[in-house]
Amino acid sequence: MADRAAPVAGLAWLAMPGDRDQPTVYFRQLLAGRDFARDDPVAGQMANFVYLVGDRQRGEVVLVDPAYAVGELLELAAADGMRCVGAIATHYHPDHIGGDLMGLAIEGIGTLLETVSVPVHVQQDELPWITRSTGIGPGDLVGHDSGDVVTVGSVPVELVHTPGHTPGSQCVVVDGRLLSGDTLFLDGCGRTDLPGGDAEALYHSLTTRLARFDDDTVIYPGHRYSPESSGTFGTTRQRNAVLRPATAEQWLAMFGTS
Questions:
Q1: Which class would CATH give 2-255?
Q2: What is the model's pTM?
Q3: Mean pLDDT of 184-203
């Protein structure tokens, strides 16, 4: 797993299983403002990651948190021979799924649905927030419970509910990778002072819901807030201050909002 901890930006990783009957995992990490949406100063400032996850053999892919230049994302996937069959939203904030960002219109899942008719997979608790922030009706959204698996081609993608940054924040698990959205960064975690944020809920998400992942799991965050684009959970546990407090009281004293 260590060789996937710091991939070359924008390149696709293909997990090559020994059993030829098993799917080949297609995985691509793209940085807004650098790998796409290069002319968008907001994309460059926000430093969002978008992920392409799919089955290379079947040529099917889902877009995780598609925002900014959605057409470019589809073109990048198509250039790799991949066809978009869905999207996954980690949470409702417009820099991840589009909408109004402080008066600026950001492309996102609304633009995607205008181009292709695909399901958008979200946590149940995030449904009203996404509908309110994007205007997309519930008929275009698929609500999930924690632990649900979305199958892309033959590739299983697990959804893990990690509330705190928002009520329905979720992480995405595929092939030894944890796409952590804004729940956990390599340094720090998502803020909890925005609508729907809950500092104590985030503490429990970090210390219970994510505790099951071993040190070899590679974290791929929702933003590039560190020099590295990814890192192992073991390294993150050692260096990330938000994972050090032993109790909720200690965590809230250090990182909670009043």
A1: alpha beta
A2: 0.91
A3: 96
